[in-house]
Amino acid sequence: MRDANPTQIHTTDEATGFIPAPNDTGKPITVIGTNSIRAGFDATCLQQALNARGAPGVTDLVLNPDAHAGYGAPVGCVLTSPTHVYPGPVGVDIKCSMSFLQLDLPADQVADKTVRRALIDAILERTPTGPGRGQRSARKAREVGEAIGVKVATDGASQEVLHALGIPLHWAERCECGYGWVTSQLSTFNFKSATRNPVDGGFG
After folding, report:
1. By three-state DSSP, how is residue 29 classified?
2. Quick check: 132 and 187 in contact, CB under 8 A?
3. How far from the centroid of its chain's Cα atoms is residue 117's Cα?
4. Do residues 127 and 97 lie in contact, with contact meaning Cβ atoms separated by under 8 Å?
5. What are phi and psi of 198, to 5 degrees?
6. pLDDT in tens, 73-103
7. Which sequence spans correspond to the domains of the chain?
8. Integer distance in angstroms from the first to the last C-alpha of the chain?
9. Which residues, other chains included, contact 162 with Cβ-Cβ below 8 Å and sequence gap of 6+?
10. Which of 34, 137, 138, 173 is surrounded by the fewest CB atoms within 10 Å?
11. Per-residue b/e over 163-177, b at no fewer than 16 CB within 10 Å?
């Protein structure tokens, strides 16, 4: 259940609004989103936006439609500061589940809308996305048992892990982080059986 939202968003248009800056000083926070989207921002998200807007050096802040509570600043906000660097709005999951796929399909074939849709559907069937169950499973993902799931979580893309998952070692070598976490390949596996239990700290 979402927290009650005490912060008022003033409507300026069908899909925009604003929140006055802290103490009504400086440029207001711009809010992008229809009325139903704006109503979906919870109190924590809006309070974080106010806190971020009032941070030293911040001169402008935009709250986008996908904004949600982060660690200190809302994930999904954009802020401007000529004097400070604030990594918080990027979030701790930068680049999560992002992949670079090189296909042998000629560019002129990808221009066809039906081919593009087939490619998108094939990728989505194999890549966990979205909240809740969506981020933990995909219809054509391969199940991974607890033992290898623990190895993935603790060792990352080690040679042993890659071999167990059937991922060619040279794929990891092409990754910007070498044998670090190969998100683009490991994300196609379903690790639900190896998810840490937040209550007792075990896997199950």
Report:
1. strand
2. no
3. 23
4. yes
5. -70, -15
6. 888 888 898 888 777 676 655 555 555 667 7
7. 10-90, 107-194
8. 26
9. 168, 169, 171, 172, 182
10. 173
11. eebebeeeebeebee
